[in-house]
Amino acid sequence: MRLEYAAISDVGRVRKDNQDSGYAGPHVLAVCDGVGGAARGDIASSTAIGQLRRLDDGPTPGDEGETDLLGQVSGALHRAHDRIGELVDENPALSGTSTTATVALFDGTKLALGHIGDSRAYLLRKGAFSQLTMDHTFVQTLIDDGQITEEEARHHPHRNLILKAVDGIHDLEPDLFQVDLEVGDRLLFCSDGACGVLDPERLGAILGEGNADYAAVELVRASLAAGSTDNVTCLVADVADGDIDVSVEAMLVGAAAELPRRGRGVSGLFRGHRAGDTGELEPVQAEIPDDLPFAIPSDPLDPEAARYAPQPPRRFAWVRRILAIAVVVGLLWVAGAAAFSWTQQQYYIGEYDGKVTIFRGVNADLPGVDLSSPYEVSDLEMSKLSEYDRGQVEEGIGSGDLGSARTTVENLAASQGDGAAGT
Questions:
Q1: Domains and CATH numbers, the chain
Q2: pLDDT at res. 299
Q3: pLDDT of residue 302
Q4: Closest among 26, 203, 8 to 111, alpha carbons compared
């Protein structure tokens, strides 16, 4: 089988820059949504696509002749991850940039998919529309826990907060899986600018119309008409009968295609569209939720900078350190109090002021700390004890409790009396 594909990316009617990137080729479908705002998410997405598109050379067999499709997809994602990390090392101003990534490698019969973030892949087969990927988002965790529904997630104030991304810093753990294809299948890869505003029924209905080219264009148009404030990228591919034709030109869209021309302005395919011309408006500053620990409501940066949850919080770091120290000190105090309480339930026999004495505590010494004290001083003088008993008392005779300690003292006195009678 082969793929007949179309790809389109639009900056939208609100944002000034397109931070999405997409690629469609004979063997590869990939969409990346850059995250970072001022940290240049466009660079992250275009860098990732630059690595992922290398898979379009086709699946390569391993040393034993077998083709590990998932291994090749995983390797490409990790190369993208490493390359973004190198760019951040070279230019610290890019710190905080990251990108989602949904990529598929096609071998003529099946797709090997790698996914991280909230871009999505869908499959339309014989009229049945299904989502292939699972979002790595905060609201998805709420859905999984049964706290909210899919419909409620579309309006949740934190619906755009992602938990995983390709950032060059955190460990990369993409979802990896394979999908067997059939002739007549239609695939959709899109950024959240589309799936975030169009419900599954609407997506499936549009995807089923016309050819791949028409469906891609209509999906972007419908997303903008539905009020999407984000960049919108859609890749549509039909699975057709016949061998893969590597001579068919690949399609590169979004930041990956526009970045070399930055400075001339970013074009929007739907500016001046009949649904309303809002393309020339200045970008709208969206409100950042106050209860996000790393978000600063007065921050002038694009709210996209706060989209990736693992960004290290920089606000009130000293408060967290003080709280951590207080917790450690509290735990040590509790442990010390428990240990001291235990020692006060222990007794042993020793010598005090020349007499056999019951001590409360443990028979041990710590610098500057008294772990025992005389509790009962008997009338039995040390000098009256046998040499053996005297040595035992001087070393300390342990007793489990006060009653046992008193019994031991009585036994020592009795043995002293027996010794005197024998003499």
A1: 2-306 (3.60.40.10), 347-422 (no CATH)
A2: 40
A3: 55
A4: 26
For 122-148, what is each residue's pLDDT tens digit?
Answer: 999 999 999 999 999 999 999 999 998
Give me the pLDDT at residue 157, please: 83
**What is the separation of C-alpha 328 from the centre of its chain, rounded to a whole number of angstroms?**
26
Q: What is the pTM of this model?
A: 0.66
In angstroms, rounded to a whole number, what is the distance separating the alpha carbons of residues 294 and 306? 7
3-state SS record for the chain: CEEEEEEEEECCCCCCCCCEEEEECCCEEEEEEEECHHHCHHHHHHHHHHHHHHHHHCCCCCCCCCCCHHHHHHHHHHHHHHHHHHHHHHCHHHCCCEECEEEEEECCCEEEEEEECCCEEEEEECCEEEECCCCCEHHHHHHHCCCCCHHHHCCCCCCCCECCCECCCCCCCCEEEEEECCCCCEEEEECHHHHCCCCHHHHHHHHCCCCHHHHHHHHHHHHHHCCCCCCEEEEEEEEECCCCCCCCCCEEEEHHHHHHHCCCCCCCCCCCCCCCCCCCCCCCCCCCCCCCCCCCCCCCCCHHHHCECCCCCCCCHHHHHHHHHHHHHHHHHHHHHHHHHHHCCCEEEEEECCEEEEEEEEEEEECCEEEEEEEEEEEEEHHHCCHHHHHHHHHCEEECCHHHHHHHHHHHHHHHHHHHHHC
Q: Is the dihedral of CA 39, 40, 46, 50 positive or negative?
A: negative
How far is residue 187's CA from residue 180's CA, in Å, rounded to a whole number?
12
Q: What is the pLDDT, as a whole number, of residue 417? A: 61
Low-confidence ranges of the chain (pLDDT < 50): 261-267, 271-301, 313-314, 419-423
Which tokens in the block code for residue 368?
């500057």
**354's torsion region: left (phi>0), alpha (psi -120 to 50) or beta?**
left
